[in-house]
Amino acid sequence: MAFGTTAVNVLLLVAMAIPGFILVKAKVIKPHAISYFSAVLLYVSQPFLSIRSFLQVEYTPSLAVNLGIVFLFSLLAQGVIFGVLWAIFAKQFDDPAASRRLLEEGYLSPHAAAPDADLSALISKCARGRACRVFVLASTFGNVGFFGVPVLQMLFPSNPEAIAYSAVFIVSMNLMCWTVGSYLLTGEKKYISLKKAVLNPQMIALVVALPLFFTGVTTDDLPDAVTKVIGFLADMTAPLCMIILGMRFAVAPIKELFTDWKVYLSVFIKVLAFPLLVYLVLLPFDSMDRMMKIALVILSGMPSASINLNLAEIYGADQKTAANNILLSTLLSIVTIPVLLLLF
């Protein structure tokens, strides 16, 4: 696919964010309502898109093997990036207990003033350490579902297996986010949530879709009414995802996106270094399915995931750094995704 064609498709996808931006800026939609739109996307549209992708492909032993490979490879790739970055930045992490105490006392809020120099130094150290924890998270876990799926859907509409690959990639990411990701942000193993890692919309969608896939059920075997309902809900994914993104841009302090060098480094790792490493690892495997290679590289190069911000909000971590990573990496992915496709 030519660079220009890919860039235009990605730009058209991002253009869908404009209505969301306008609605929030015009105060038609309040910022607190963004989470409700996200819930519709997470619990309805995206699971139905995954289910439809499995219904649109016919079961073959090779495709089943490929799905297993994508799951294991994505788990390993994310694990390697996560582990290497953790090892590099671990010495800069904050003391979680000290950070929680400062957060409870209001000293980690943007405009808080410290009464003495020692406390000021502790606040700065904790703030840097909290940012480093989010840095590792944001550099590893990409927006495979909310951005990756619409991108693959738009770029490869005649390849539903690409969406199936993304579905299992999302599962591997969720497994890591709710376990080692939670541990990273909190520093305590008690926050590891195996329940949330297993019981999430994407996993439930796979529980529904995989038996249909393995038994050879396709859209041709279902009543037209059922197929249409699944299709309508699945087709909401791309526009709804982009509208939500536009809403988030509308409430973001844009100037802060360009003032932190660590955000630039994190974004570079996420949208370029990570997928290029995946490409180099896969390069020797000439017999590997081409669409699987493309999907793995593109999904590895997705911008920082929304779940990073969600986890930061849940655990009281550095939400500003998480949000800045998401927005800046999404902006730069307009260029990097077409560049990555040039590799093929």
Secondary-structure map:
Layout: H1 3-15, H2 18-25, H3 34-55, H4 61-89, H5 96-104, H6 117-140, H7 144-155, H8 160-186, H9 194-198, H10 201-214, H11 224-235, H12 237-251, H13 261-282, H14 290-300, H15 306-315, H16 319-342
Helix pairs in contact: 1-7, 1-16, 2-12, 3-8, 3-10, 3-11, 3-12, 4-6, 4-8, 5-6, 6-8, 6-13, 6-16, 7-8, 7-12, 8-14, 8-15, 13-14, 13-16, 15-16
Series of H and E elements = HHHHHHHHHHHHHHHH
Biggest sheet: strands, sense, closure?
none
Percentage of residues in DSSP E strands: under 5%
Structure summary, number of beta strands: 0
First-residue to last-residue Cα separation: 8 Å
The residue ranges in which pLDDT falls below 50 over 5 or more consecutive positions are: none
Please identify the structural class as seen in this structure. mainly alpha
Looking at the structure, the CATH topology is Na+/H+ antiporter like fold
Give the number of helices: 16
**Total number of distinct structural domains:** 1
**Principal-axes shape call:** globular
CATH architecture: Up-down Bundle
Mean pLDDT level? 86
CATH C-level class is Mainly Alpha
